[in-house]
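Recap from last week: sequence in, structure out.
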Amino acid sequence: FHAPCSCSFFRFLFCHSKREPQRSPSLTWYYILFNYLQPSIKALFLTMPHATARVGDTIIAETDVWETVEGNIYFPPTAIKDNSILSKTNTVTRCPWKGEASYYSITVGAQTLQDAAWYYPQPYDAAKNIKDYIAFCMIHPFASLNFLNFVKRKSQGLGLDCLLTIFCALLLIDKSKVSVSVE
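Predicted structure tokens:
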């Protein structure tokens, strides 16, 4: 499970232009690297890549205007395709600089993903740009059994295979359920 404040080391607040954005795939990696390399700087971009959140093949949110905070993509409430798939839960977490987060479960077809999205209904001033924006627990790109087996094979003979496999499993355990992409 990915708590909203688990990446406080990479804390950053990313502001963007309210102008109509254009898709810019070439900016995606620069955009991400800039945020991680310059965590204390607020940056202004006139264009933003397109962001999409999916559960399986079902698109649940899509937008060209979004915020990133601590590596999570926050979708505006208007980006949600069908609000009926979101149901509020009793789960609440607190961040020392963003405030109290409330959670949603996501139901797509017969599949329900418990606490798979969160939002800040009353954020602190430092995070007022994400008020009511929704972030999703994201799937780690390497969170697969194939990756763990690869690590295990590579570490055999070093006496570290068990330790490395456990370490990778702890890092990549199914802490996320929704695929979020930026194009």
